[in-house]
Amino acid sequence: MSRPPLPSPAPPSLAAGQPSRARVERRTIQEAVLEWYGVHGRSLHLRTLRDPYAIWVGETMSQQTQMARVEQALPGFLERFPTVVALAAAPAADVLRAWAGLGYNRRALDLWRAARETVSRHDARLPSDPDVLRKLPGIGAYTARAVAATAFGSSVTALDTNTRRVLGRVLYGYGARGDPGTPPRDAELQTVADAATPPTRAAEWNHALMDLGALVCRPRPACAACPITLSCRWHALSAGAAMERRHELRLAVRLPRIPFEWTRRWLRGRIVDDLRNAPDSEWVRIEGDYGHHDREAIEVALAGLERDGLIERDAVGAARLAR
User: Fold this and answer.
1) Tell me, what CATH number does 264's domain have?
2) HSE on the CB side for 263, CA within 13 Å?
3) Does residue 139 fall inside a structural domain?
4) Which long-range contacts (CB under 8 A, 24 or more apart) does 309-313 make?
5) CA-CA distance, 88 to 167, in Å (whole number)?
6) Which among 59, 188, 248, 306 is annotated as catalytic?
7) Are residues 116 and 175 in the same domain?
8) Which of 159, 151, 191, 150 is nearest to 12 (CA)?
9) Do 200 and 170 sit in the same domain of this protein?
């Protein structure tokens, strides 16, 4: 089998308007990735949803949270707050309680604030334009494009860690031993990614790229299982033996990881959990130490939670979930 040509060294040539070769390469990559996804893609509850509001909630939950936890929590959250109107009308404390176990509690507060703004400014209809979505609290570039593509079929690609790795390797060869280069700029990669989105299969394309990065094109990739290996600039520039050796060297110098229980994120989460478990509206004195965290660290965490709008504190320092 003859080797197909590699993508052009200038990835923006994949944009619409470029003739023959770039279009053929783009179409070949799209078809191969979508065909692979049809066989190997993950079956997730989030991907069965059709309601834009439910998709938005699921996408917000899935940021920096294991998908298994999202799959478990999402049905209950949607049952408690089935519409954007119901979410906007709920007290913030109820939303924070329903968010238990998902971490990064500020996301719940932003979700609630965005729901209120959607009701007041957009007639309770989630906008389909990613640029308008980005103006809502807590919605960044990734979430805006993920919702636009999967809920409304917009021809855009959401760039998360997995998708960036796939496109950065395939189109730019970024990270290859022979030509490590520099990572593509966000704006440039986003332009190329959006141009490469199949206009009639945007949702599948986004899911497929994410799964390809999560299952195959991992930090240490399984190139033999990749459907687009022969079109990948990174693979062409990387030598297998050298790549293995480099991985061994990285393992040898890897610094020990800090236990999660020692982090400020763990401390903030435990404080919010304690306040969730308190009777509604009751003020709670946060006393004693939390694991390895002393009183100074606890006070810093409480101040941060109050600043972020997750909790309230009274004159003597007792706390409760934000109302």
Assistant:
1) 1.10.10
2) 8
3) no
4) 309/92, 309/106, 309/109, 310/96, 310/105, 310/106, 310/109, 310/272, 311/271, 311/272, 311/275
5) 37
6) 59
7) no
8) 191
9) yes
Assess whether 21 and 75 both reside in one domain: no
- Token readout for 228 is 């687009």
Average pLDDT of the residues in 284-307 = 83
In a domain, 140, yes or no: no
Mean pLDDT lowest among 26-35, 82-91, 152-161 = 26-35
Contacts of 269 by beta carbon, 8 Å cutoff, 6+ apart: 103, 105
Query: Contact 313/82 with Cβ under 8 angstroms?
Result: no
Q: 314 and 269, same structural domain?
A: yes
Residues 272 and 311 in one domain: yes
Overall size of the chain counted in residues: 323
Digit-coded pLDDT (tens) for 126-151? 999 999 999 999 999 999 999 999 99
Q: Are 271 and 286 in contact (CB under 8 A)?
A: yes
Look at residues 304, 267, 272, 290 and name the one whose alpha carbon lies nearest to residue 105. 272
Residue 323: pLDDT band by 50, 70, 90 thresholds?
A: confident
Interior CA angle at 31 toward 30 and 36, to 5°? 100
Q: How far apart are CA 217 and CA 61, in angstroms?
A: 23
Q: Summarize the confidence of residues 106-122 as an average pLDDT.
A: 97
69 and 210 part of one domain: no
Average pLDDT over residues 84-88: 98
* Residues 243 and 268 reside in one and the same domain: no
DSSP bridge partners of 313: 319
Read off the pTM: 0.73
- Distance between CA atoms of 176 and 34, rounded to whole angstroms? 25
Domain range for 292 is 260-321
Q: Catalytic: 59?
A: yes
**Residue 15 CB-density burial (10 A; 0-12 exposed, 13-18 middle, 19+ buried):** middle
Give the residue from 232, 253, 274 where a domain finishes: 253
Q: Is residue 4 part of a domain?
A: no
